[in-house]
């Protein structure tokens, strides 16, 4: 990502269709918030704009899971990565692009970061995303009760994992 991508993130993260599943419709982003969350933070996440057919359509980030998070999720060892993503251009929803995105990132993490597992924690109610992730080979591990604050309510999430073949 670079500074030119700020306006894309503002556009996507102020769209109520996107926010219904990512961040919440009560949590729209403006330029200041995008800068604070995506550019001015010092987290160990690799943040990328997703392009499809040379058009920017979404966002993905990946990060190595720290020891405390591993323990909280029930993992005792391994090189485990987490990913988060969204397609911000909604006309690309339900076209297989999300499946291509997720499977490509998982392959990258196995090849280049030597990941043993890749995990995510989507909300239980996000059925379209869960179908996508299952098509990519993710398996449901366990429910994480009241795991994510979304639109003023703590929501249950699934811990899902993809294990290297």
UniProtKB/TrEMBL annotation:
<protein>
    <submittedName>
        <fullName>GNAT family N-acetyltransferase</fullName>
    </submittedName>
</protein>
<keyword id="KW-0808">Transferase</keyword>
<dbReference type="InterPro" id="IPR016181">
    <property type="entry name" value="Acyl_CoA_acyltransferase"/>
</dbReference>
<dbReference type="GO" id="GO:0046677">
    <property type="term" value="P:response to antibiotic"/>
</dbReference>
<dbReference type="Pfam" id="PF13523">
    <property type="entry name" value="Acetyltransf_8"/>
</dbReference>
<dbReference type="InterPro" id="IPR000182">
    <property type="entry name" value="GNAT_dom"/>
</dbReference>
<dbReference type="GO" id="GO:0016410">
    <property type="term" value="F:N-acyltransferase activity"/>
</dbReference>
<keyword id="KW-0046">Antibiotic resistance</keyword>
<feature type="domain" description="N-acetyltransferase">
    <location>
        <begin position="8"/>
        <end position="161"/>
    </location>
</feature>
């Amino acid at each position: 990502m670079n500074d030119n991508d700020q306006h894309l993130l503002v556009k996507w993260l102020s769209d109520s269709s996107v926010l219904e599943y990512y961040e919440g419709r009560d949590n729209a982003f403006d330029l200041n918030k995008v800068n604070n969350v995506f550019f001015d933070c010092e987290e160990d996440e690799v943040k990328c704009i997703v392009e499809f057919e040379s058009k920017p359509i979404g966002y993905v980030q990946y990060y190595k899971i720290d020891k405390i998070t591993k323990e909280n999720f029930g993992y005792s060892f391994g090189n485990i990565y987490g990913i988060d993503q969204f397609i911000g251009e909604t006309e690309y929803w339900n076209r297989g692009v999300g499946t291509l995105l997720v499977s490509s990132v998982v392959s990258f993490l196995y090849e280049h970061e030597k990941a043993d597992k890749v995990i995510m924690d989507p909300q239980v109610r996000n059925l379209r995303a869960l179908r996508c992730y299952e098509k990519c080979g993710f398996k449901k591990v366990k429910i994480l009760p009241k795991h994510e604050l979304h639109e003023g309510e703590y929501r249950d999430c699934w811990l899902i994992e993809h294990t290297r073949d």
